[in-house]
From TrEMBL:
This is NAD(P)-binding domain-containing protein. InterPro entries: NAD(P)-bd_dom (IPR016040), NAD(P)-bd_dom_sf (IPR036291). It holds the Pfam family NAD_binding_10. Residues 17-222 form the NAD(P)-binding domain. Belongs to the avfA family. SUPFAM superfamilies: NAD(P)-binding Rossmann-fold domains.
Length: 285
């Protein structure tokens, strides 16, 4: 008798930012999905870096890699052709001037989708799952004391402004895509404790592993399809007091970047110098 099992659903997912700390974990989780017929179209600036993280990727027939500039609209159009879901985990963590990575992504993505829509007017808009921040969601940030909220917004003012500008561009084009914002608070390096997804609240922190699990659930669980933004947290972060020293350290550093002229250049220069000294000592040993 023939196999009466239903055919596996087919999906094509574009991943932007696959070599970053969040993106590589998201991609690892996507590769491990079973029971779905998945293909992946991955944009990177450096294919060699991607291959160093995923040595078997060049022989994976599910994967097509697109290497180049984010401003190459033709390249982005090829990367987004045929996809039903776009995952973007790009972003800048440092509060330095001239941050445009998210705006560049938004403009290039919209231009690429315009090109694809001109070729196929009946094309269904893809779903964009975009890494954002709980700071820019009134529901999620409402429990914060006002002074802490002011400090956080200013400590990361430049990357936040880039993110907000990008989100506004993307929201203004509903005919080209739909979007759900993934909005954590602080991102921390610690063991996973379980991902908590909720549109109404977010704990103080999320581990990178739990954040990646959140992206996986948003891709695979249709329960979240009707939402436009969700908080993503780690279960451990229910006790927010555990993360106050880490958060305050990041915030104070960001405020120094924001309000002390020349501070960020000096810090970067000192780190670069110390890195060179350490590298020379390591070679000599």
């Amino acid at each position: 008798m023939g196999d009466k099992s239903s055919p596996r659903p087919s999906r094509c997912i574009a991943v932007i930012g696959a070599t970053g700390q969040t993106g590589r974990l998201v991609l690892r989780n996507l590769f491990a999905i079973e029971g779905m017929d998945l293909t992946f179209q991955i944009y990177v600036r450096s294919q060699s870096k991607l291959e160093s993280l995923f040595p078997a990727i060049s022989s994976d027939d599910r994967v097509t890699v697109f290497q180049g500039s984010i401003d190459d609209h033709s390249l982005m159009a090829r990367c987004l052709s045929g996809v039903d879901t776009i995952i973007c985990t790009l972003g800048e963590n440092e509060n330095i001037p001239g941050v445009r990575v998210m705006q560049d992504f938004a403009k290039s993505t919209l231009k690429a989708l315009e090109i694809l829509k001109e070729r196929d007017h009946d094309r269904k808009p893809p779903r964009l799952i975009l890494l954002s921040s709980a700071t820019w969601n009134e529901r999620l940030s409402e429990p914060r004391p006002a002074i802490l909220h002011w400090m956080i917004r200013n400590a990361f003012a430049r990357p936040y402004q880039d993110l907000v500008n990008a989100q506004e561009l993307l929201k203004a084009s509903p005919s080209l895509l739909s979007m759900i914002l993934v909005q954590p608070n602080a991102l921390v390096e610690e063991a996973p404790s379980g991902c908590v997804i909720d549109p109404e609240f977010a704990y103080m922190a999320v581990s990178y592993e739990d954040l990646a699990e959140g992206f996986l659930r948003l891709v695979t669980d249709p329960t979240y399809d009707g939402l436009d933004a969700v908080g993503v947290s780690s279960k451990n972060a229910k006790n927010g007091l555990l993360y106050i020293p880490f958060v305050l350290g990041k915030v104070i550093r960001g405020l120094m970047f924001q309000f002390i002229p020349g501070y960020w250049q000096t810090e970067f220069a000192v780190k670069g110098f110390l890195g060179e000294v350490f590298s020379r000592k390591k070679k000599q040993s």
